[in-house]
């Protein structure tokens, strides 16, 4: 599964957030025999559509899509110089498919800030600088070889040009992700800042409703998505029974917990989407990359489904709910038969036909 690495300076609330995430662990419920590493948290992506489908199909249970977070300890200034924890930190980050930076915005004077002051913009710069320096190092190491290859193979010249452009972008202090440059020709270098970024701002609870502050922080990290939450509050919420958690949440003026929001935004940041299946046993969301075809989607359920794919019977979630039943959706002509070239849309409700 694709993973999101959680990084941040010390004392910003990473552990608090991560512990709350793992308390919401859905894996234990659905896959009781799976073992997971202590620094991995697999959380459900909240999806109201599943409850509605479960009603329509009298499903015994619902199974949401999941998103996997990995707690990556140890960013320190100088990480890019490969000292101490630095090397391990960079190796862990390289394995993640997206990077979630936790940034402290809460002011609590009892919690010491590593740099002595709470200043989100400067913390973001500190982390990005380490990642940028590591990428520049990667490029300096790779360029002589790439240039040599380009002398022998004409088609490598475009790669060299793209890598040189990336070096210029990084030298200006911009991440590859934020630059919006085409990442495809850079793929082979596995640059850290070419991964999708996502930011979590850990706020005081009374800042959660401060739209001006949130707009200012969002602007710091655009085009990356920003999630605003209070990690301490999330930790409390994760320990309460659902009804009490909802009450506490609403008392802070929020509709949705920060963890739920983070799961949804994280899923999106990874470039994933879901399709749905429903029957008496379960209503379930399945994870596919955006752009996946019907046979690829079938393969997520079982490789045999992909190999023996014949066609997919598909109705959009909205059409199905409008119709109120599968039979009515059919009589309205809303249920389509799609072949192997069909590109899945988010929220397709699907039944696959296949040869075994
Ligand atoms: P980490 O070093 O980034 O993993 O940070 P921790 O999660 O260990 O948190 C460091 C300290 O900050 C702990 O004493 C937490 O209780 C406190 N803390 C974490 N999140 C918040 C928050 O949202 N508000 C306040 N006031 N304190 C927090």
From TrEMBL:
This protein's GO cellular component annotations are: cytoplasm
Q: What keywords appear on the UniProt entry? A: ATP-binding, Magnesium, Metal-binding, Nucleotide-binding
Q: What residues bind ATP, as annotated?
A: 11-16
Determine if ATP-binding is one of this entry's keywords: yes
Signal peptide residues are: none
Q: Which residues form the TGS domain?
A: 271-354
InterPro entries linked: ATPase_YchF/OLA1, Beta-grasp_dom_sf, G_OBG, GTP-bd, P-loop_NTPase, TGS, TGS-like, TGS-like_dom_sf
MF terms per GO, please?
ATP binding; ATP hydrolysis activity; GTP binding; metal ion binding; ribosomal large subunit binding
**Family according to the record:** Belongs to the TRAFAC class OBG-HflX-like GTPase superfamily. OBG GTPase family. YchF/OLA1 subfamily.
The record's HAMAP family line, in alphabetical order, gives: YchF_OLA1_ATPase
Instruction: Describe the task this protein carries out.
Output: ATPase that binds to both the 70S ribosome and the 50S ribosomal subunit in a nucleotide-independent manner.
Protein name per UniProt? Ribosome-binding ATPase YchF
List the taxonomic lineage. Bacteria, Bacillati, Actinomycetota, Actinomycetes, Motilibacterales
């Amino acid at each position: 599964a694709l993973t999101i690495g959680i990084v941040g300076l010390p004392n910003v609330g990473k552990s608090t957030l991560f512990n709350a995430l793992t308390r919401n662990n859905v894996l234990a419920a659905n896959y009781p025999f799976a073992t997971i590493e202590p620094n991995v948290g697999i959380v459900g992506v909240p999806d109201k559509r599943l409850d509605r489908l479960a009603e329509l199909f009298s499903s015994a249970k619902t199974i949401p899509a999941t998103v996997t977070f990995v707690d990556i300890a140890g960013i320190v200034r100088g990480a890019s110089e490969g000292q101490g924890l630095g090397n391990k930190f960079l190796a862990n980050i390289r394995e993640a498919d997206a990077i979630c930076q936790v940034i402290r915005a809460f002011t609590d004077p009892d919690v010491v800030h590593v740099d002595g002051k709470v200043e989100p913009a400067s913390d973001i710069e500190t982390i990005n600088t380490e990642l940028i320096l590591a990428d520049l190092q990667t490029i300096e190491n790779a360029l002589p070889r790439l240039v040599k290859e380009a002398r022998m193979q004409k088609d490598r010249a475009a790669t060299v040009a793209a890598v040189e452009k990336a070096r210029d972008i990084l030298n200006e202090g911009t991440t590859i992700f934020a630059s919006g440059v085409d990442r495809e020709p850079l793929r082979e270098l596995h640059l850290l800042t070419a991964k999708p970024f996502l930011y979590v701002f850990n706020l005081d609870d009374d800042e959660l409703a401060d739209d001006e502050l949130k707009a200012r922080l969002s602007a710091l990290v655009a085009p990356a998505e920003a999630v605003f939450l209070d990690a301490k509050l999330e930790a409390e919420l994760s320990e309460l029974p659902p009804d009490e958690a909802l009450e506490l949440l609403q008392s802070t003026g929020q509709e949705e917990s920060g963890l739920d929001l983070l799961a949804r935004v994280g899923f999106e940041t990874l470039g994933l989407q879901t399709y749905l299946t429903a029957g008496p046993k379960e209503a379930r969301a399945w994870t596919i990359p955006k752009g996946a075809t019907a046979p690829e989607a079938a393969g997520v359920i079982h490789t045999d489904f992909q190999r023996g794919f014949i066609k997919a019977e598909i109705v959009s979630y909205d059409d199905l709910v409008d119709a109120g039943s599968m039979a009515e959706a059919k009589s309205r002509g809303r249920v389509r038969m799609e072949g192997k070239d069909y590109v899945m849309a988010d929220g397709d409700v699907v039944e696959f036909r296949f040869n075994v």
